[in-house]
From TrEMBL:
S-adenosyl-L-methionine binds at residues 48-50, 92, 133-135, 173-176. It catalyses: 6-carboxy-5,6,7,8-tetrahydropterin + H(+) = 7-carboxy-7-carbaguanine + NH4(+). HAMAP family: QueE. Belongs to the radical SAM superfamily. 7-carboxy-7-deazaguanine synthase family. It is an enzyme of class 4 (lyase). The keyword Lyase applies. [4Fe-4S] cluster binds at residues 31, 46, 49. This is 7-carboxy-7-deazaguanine synthase. Gene3D superfamilies: Aldolase class I. It comes from Sphingomonas panacisoli. Its cofactor is Mg(2+); S-adenosyl-L-methionine; [4Fe-4S] cluster. It comes from the Bacteria.
Length: 213
């Protein structure tokens, strides 16, 4: 199978339990909860997306003919050292494209594989770190994993229900509204959740604060 990748880059994981870790990001093109076109945003299931995942024209992006080609490109971004190789598969919705061949090829290059998914498709069992970020109004089938990362506030999502799922870490991530006042309100709302429910921890998108990708 070939893979449509919007962009690929080396950075720090900015979110979640692995925040601060050196990582190659592979951003797959396409999502099942929004077309990615601004004119469709208001009618999409997921309306707050902060990401351009349309097409394959980003830096490091392209159509990769097969899994070894994609994995070799990720290894090039990491560099020759094999120690601690870590990649994050995101998008868009990465589970639309991740398959056995890709997981095997990334493992063969020595990568620990993390994934950021909306959970509407089952996670590939070979993924080493599964992060699920549920979206209100979607049917989440992947109800177990390493971290559940809820963007907040999110009308229609129920914290009690999510606490019943099988995740090792429960994280609240303030909604990036695109403006300072909105972001301050999101942060206050997220802090209030943690103060009220000690099972949850605050996670911030630190790459945005640091000016990283
Ligand atoms: C762009 S998504 C791609 C992966 C997958 N489609 C998903 O939604 O989990 C990556 C992460 O960014 C989060 N995210 C998207 N838009 C956001 C926003 N405006 N504010 C905060 N987090 C956001 C998502 O919830 C997800 O955890
Ligand atoms: N640095 C950095 N960390 C991230 N963690 C999750 C991201 C994503 O868009 O999936 C992301 C991203 O876009 N950049
Ligand atoms: S599910 Fe993820 S990639 Fe798709 S629109 Fe929502 S945040 Fe963006
Ligand atoms: Mg992002």
């Amino acid at each position: 199978m070939s893979y449509a990748v919007k962009e690929m880059f080396l950075t720090l994981q900015g979110e979640g339990v692995n925040a601060g870790r050196r990582a190659v990001f592979v951003r797959f093109a396409g999502c099942n909860l929004w077309s990615g076109r601004e004119q469709d945003r208001a009618s999409a299931i997921c309306q707050f997306c902060d990401t351009d995942f349309v097409g394959t024209d980003g830096e490091g992006g392209g159509r990769f003919a097969d899994a070894p080609a994609l994995a070799a490109a990720a290894a090039d971004f990491w560099g020759p050292d094999h120690a601690e190789r870590f990649c994050v598969l995101t998008g868009g919705e990465p589970m639309l494209q991740i398959d056995d061949a890709l997981v095997d090829a990334l493992h063969a290059e020595g990568f620990v594989i993390a994934m950021e998914s909306n959970g509407t498709l089952p996670a590939h069992p070979g993924i080493d770190w599964v992060c699920i970020s549920p979206k209100a109004g979607s049917e989440v089938v992947q109800r177990r994993g390493d971290e559940l990362k809820l963007v907040w506030p999110q009308p229609g999502s129920d914290l009690d229900t999510l606490e019943g799922w099988d995740f090792a870490n429960l994280l609240i991530q303030p909604l990036d509204t695109g403006d300072a006042a909105g972001n301050a309100a999101s942060e206050a709302a997220a802090i209030a959740v943690v103060m009220d429910r000690p099972r949850w921890r605050l996670t911030l998108q630190v790459h945005k604060r640091l000016g990283l990708r």
